[in-house]
Amino acid sequence: MENTLHIAALWLHILGIALFVGPQFFLAFAWVPTSRLIGDPATRVMAMRNITRRFGWIGGAGLVLILVAGTYLISTWRDYYAIPDDAEFTSLRYGVIFMVKMTVLIVMLIVVGLHTFVVGPRLIAKLEAQAEGQPVSDEEIRSARMQSMLLSITGLLLVLAIMVMGTMMTAANFSMQDA
After folding, report:
1. Structural Rg of the chain based on CA atoms
2. CA trace torsion 150, 151, 153, 159 (10° rounding)
3. How far apart are the first and last CA of the chain?
4. Is 41 exposed, middle or buried (0-12, 13-18, 19+ CB in 10 A)?
5. Tens-place pLDDT, residues 51-93
6. Who's near 156: CB < 8 A, 6+ residues apart?
7. Does 1 have pLDDT greater than 80?
8. What is the model's pTM?
9. Total structural domains in the chain?
10. Range of lowest pLDDT (29-33, 46-50, 71-75, 110-114)
11. What percent of the chain has pLDDT over 90?
């Protein structure tokens, strides 16, 4: 039963990662360049708002799966890897990698949160205002786009680093060695 639960949790963790990371790649490499082909600015902004909102929900669901399954995996690691209770968590590479991974996760969540709740909405508001004929300079739009791209790229690089650390943790021959 323990192996079945571990496999299910690992699968849910990976599914959550796919749901969280997939939309980031789609938006960065498919939607953003393609959206520039939409000639009507109001239509482009409406599509951008709807697509990013829907992908936000997908990414949010993925994040929930990551956290729930990850909590199970970390709470059962000693039993799964047959590590004695007296072994200190940080005496193994597994524990050190996990702590670094969680630190990077917090930074990534801050970056993604800033993009999702502050910078992204500010960019969309500026684009909407410009589409409605309100006075918004090209420099304001460019600056908001650059901030959005910087946070997006940073968040994506951080999540890729987290994925590397997660992979390192699952390689027991490596991660269960002394730190």
Report:
1. 20
2. 160
3. 30
4. middle
5. 999 999 999 999 999 999 999 999 999 999 989 988 899 999 9
6. 21, 24, 25, 28
7. no
8. 0.89
9. 1
10. 29-33
11. 75
Return the beta strands (E) in the chain as ranges.
none
What one-character DSSP code corresponds to residue 149?
H
Residue numbers of the domain that contains 54: 2-175
At 58, give phi and psi (nearest 5°): -65, -50
CA–CA dist 31, 49 (Å, integer): 12
- What average pLDDT does this structure show over 167-178? 91
As a whole number of angstroms, the distance between CA 32 and CA 34 comes to 6
Q: How far apart are CA 118 and CA 136, in angstroms?
A: 18
Taking a C-beta distance cutoff of 8 angstroms, is the pair 169, 175 a contact?
yes
